[in-house]
Predict the 3D structure of the following.
Amino acid sequence: MNQDNENTIPKDTGAEWTANWRSQHPNTVNAFLIPAVDFVEVLNEIGVLDDTAAAQAQANANNLNSQVRGYLAIDGNDTEKIIFVGTENVDGVDRDIIDGTIDGTTPTTLKSSASDPSTSGVYDFTSPCPPSCDELSPLN
């Protein structure tokens, strides 16, 4: 699979942005661990994955107990963000996969085609609400 690097950010940028969040919000949550099957369900619901592809992706995610971590962050323009990384469970701890490694070691779940040296594995594809809100949503 060829990765689109448009939404990746360098790990140093991610570290800076998450440090900004922690500095401005020292007594609150820093990140959320999200089951990959939940992302698959959303992608299926909006039609990005058809039912067959979603079922296979969910089976893979369940078999690997795959998780995604979403870190709260504030970029250099003071815009709040959520940046995402994949994780792998190592000895009972979900460890971040950044630059295709966990502390310099290749994760066992990482597909060789996913270890693209031109991407950090740190993804920023979010837009905050406001202004990107659904004014009619009961969640807003």
In short: The longest helix spans residues 11-24. The radius of gyration is 16 Å. The chain has a mean pLDDT of 87. The helical segments are 11-24, 36-45, 51-64.
